[in-house]
Structure formats: C-alpha cells, structure tokens
Amino acid sequence: MSGKRSIFEEVGDARARPQDAPRPTGMIDRAGGGARGAIRAWLIVLFVMVAAMILVGGLTRLTDSGLSITEWKPVAGALPPMNEAAWTEAFEKYRAIPEYRLQNKGMSLAAFKSIYWWEWGHRQLGRGIGLVWALGFVFFWLTKRIPAGWTGRLLGIGVLGGLQGAIGWWMVSSGLSGGMLDVASYRLATHLGIAFVILGLIAWFVFRLGRSRPELIQARRGREARLFALSTGVMHLVFLQVLLGALVAGIDAGRNFTDWPLMAGGFLPPDLFALEPWWRNFFEDDGLVQFMHRMAGYLLVGFGLVVWRRARKSGNRHSRRAFDWMAAMLLAQMGLGIVTVMHSSPWSIAILHQLGAVVLWVLILRARFLAQYPVAQSVRG
After folding, report:
1. Which residues pair with 263 in a beta bridge?
2. Alpha helices in 174-285 (DSSP H)
3. Shortest CA distance to 185 belongs to which of 285, 57, 333, 104?
4. pLDDT tens-digit series, residues 200-245
5. Measured between alpha carbons, how far is 277 from 371 in angstroms, rounded to an integer?
6. Cis bond upstream, residue 374 (ω within 30)
7. How far apart are CA 366 and CA 172, in angstroms?
8. Would the pLDDT of 17 be above 70?
9. What is residue 267's three-state secondary structure?
10. Each residue of 302-322: b (16+ CB within 10 Å) or e?
C-alpha cells in the first residue's frame, strides 16, 4: 500500500521513488558521461594549489624575493643548490643584477638564501601544479572518462598553465638588467591576471561538474538573464581591480600616501604626469597608480551594491544568499584595502588583502553561476 503523495511532488512523476530508495551513484555519471565526480575532485585540488600559488607569489613580491633566481630552468631548476659551492655560484649571479648592486649591496649569503627559498618555493609550486594537471588529464583521457565536450576545457587549463610559466619568466627577466630594482609592473599585472583567469575557469568548471547535465539543462530554463549580465559586469570590474592592485604592488605604491580618504591632503595626488613620456605615469607613478586603484575600488563597491540590491528581488533564495556573500566580501575587501594603505602595506596585512581578492573573485563567480543555473527549489521555497 503506497503512502500519501505530497502536493509538492512533481506532477510528471508518475511513480514516486520511495523515500529511502538509494539514488543511482557511482564514478561514472550516466547522464553526462565520464567521471564527473572524480574530475571535479581533481579540479578542486588544482584550485587549492593555484590559490596557494597566488598567495605565495604575493609573499614573494612583498619580501623582494622574485629576482633571487636569475635563470629559467623548468626541469633542472627543480633542484636547489646542493652544496656551498652551488650556493656561492647562485649568489654571484644575483650579485650581478641591478637589485643587488643598487639596493642590496653587502647582503650576506645567509640573507640571500632566505629570499632564494621564497622564489624557489614559488617556482616549485608551479611545477607541482603542472604535474598534478598532467597526471590527471592523461589518466582521464587514456581511460576515456572525460565527459563529452570537456576535453578542450580541461586541456585549456594546462595550456594556460604552461603559458603562465613563460609569462613568469618574461616578468622576472625584466628586472635582471638596466637600472630595474623590481620587475616591470605591467608584466606583474599580466602574470597575476592570467593566474586569476586560470583560477576562475577552474572554479566555474567545479561549479558545473557539481550538478548533472540534466540538472543544468533544466536550471538554464530558469536563468535570471538580467542578474547574470549585471554579475558579469561586476566580474569584469573585479578583474580590472586585480590588475590595478598588481600595478600598485609592482612599484610599492601602497607604501606611500598613507592618509585616507585624501592623498597627501588632497583629492588628487601631487605631481601628476611628472614622468616622460606621459603614458609611463599610468604604470610607474606611485601616486597616480594608487589613485586609480582607489577610484576603481569605489566604482566596484558602488556597482556591486546596486547589483546586490537587484539580486534581493530574485525569487530564488540560493541566488539571494550568493549575492549577499558577494556584497559582504566587497565591503570587507574595501576595508582591508584601506587598512593596508593606512599601515603602509606591511606584508601581514597586504597578503590578507590579496587573499580577500581571491575569495571575492570566487564568490562573484558563484553568484554569477547561480544566476545562470538557479538551484531548483520547492513551491514553499
């Protein structure tokens, strides 16, 4: 004898599934084909590693360690100096670059080892990411467990990772000659921007693989197009702010103009466009670069709150909560930025600000995803 059916049960469900009956499970997702769950777990590992890479890269910049290794050896460079002679050779190469001659002259070998280990760890983590990606991709590809339509997406992550390694060396090489004390700020911005693109793609793929293909197709029918478009705008603004933040870090602009909301007592920083040619100021003038970062932050928070207000009208509680988290993190990140500047960007606060950017990036992508693929809810919901 069958039990009573709930009035909220799907009308088209002619035979209700017993409440305790197990749902079909297993490694292979029959609906979409391929090992969706296993690939999602692999991508989550990659996501954590890339997020850690961004933070380690930030610490490498904040500790002025990025130029300590003056060669790019993707394979042989995996081994650090193994004896005193090798350490002396690496130190001599560092002593030949402008950063040592103009800024760190007289540095001891022990101090050099300290910055060397930061940069070596940064590069080693990059190698680890490449290895985890390659082993996972080859395994899923050879065992034919990649879902239909996903081979190109997963391969693209690896291609971007390889490109990122080359861009990393392009960035480092800019600080090894001439009168440069640091890497070129626009190259640092490119390097960080690619890292956020990779992180964003992995996060989006994790969100998609968390639901079956039939679920996604059904959810797409209820997409909130306006909210999706607005959240796409927020995403682009956050990406721009990340790039501007990299420019700030690249020239240590966050350590000057420590008053807020003014800059050196005025709305505009003094001596604007003092560098020649004029376009250099947008990359190398600490006052203008920090001013751009501040203004973009105000624009981002203002627009983000407008989008959040619009999201409050959504009929889907999951979407509303996602945009609530986005708005809360926007405000927290702005507060962190203000505190960072007012304390002249100590590494302990600056790295929290960079972590905040990673968290905000993911929360915006999640809100955007839920606007595109709303989670089904009951009539009561």
Report:
1. 266
2. 185-209, 213-220, 225-250, 281-284
3. 285
4. 999 999 999 999 889 999 989 989 999 999 999 999 999 999 999 9
5. 45
6. no
7. 33
8. no
9. coil
10. eebeebbeebeebebeebbeb
277 contacts: CB under 8 Å, gap ≥ 6: none
The CA-atom distances, in angstroms, between 95 and each of 28, 77, 106, 109, 178 are 56, 19, 9, 11, 14
Map tokens 């959240």 to a residue: 231
Nearest to 233, CA basis, from 312, 307, 296: 307
Measured CA to CA in angstroms, residue 54 lies from 32, 156, 193, 195 at distances of 32, 19, 10, 7
Token output for 177: 């000659």
Check pLDDT > 70 for residue 302: yes
pTM: 0.88
Q: Which residue in the block uniquely carries the two structure tokens 């693109």?
A: 197
Instruction: Report residue 168 as tokens.
Output: 């990393």
Do 42 and 133 contact (CB within 8 A), yes or no?
A: no
User: Does residue 15 surpass a pLDDT of 90?
Assistant: no
Amino acid found at 328: A
Domain parsing of the chain, residue ranges: 31-210, 220-381
Give the model's confidence band at 271: pLDDT under 50 very low, under 70 low, under 90 confident, else very high: confident
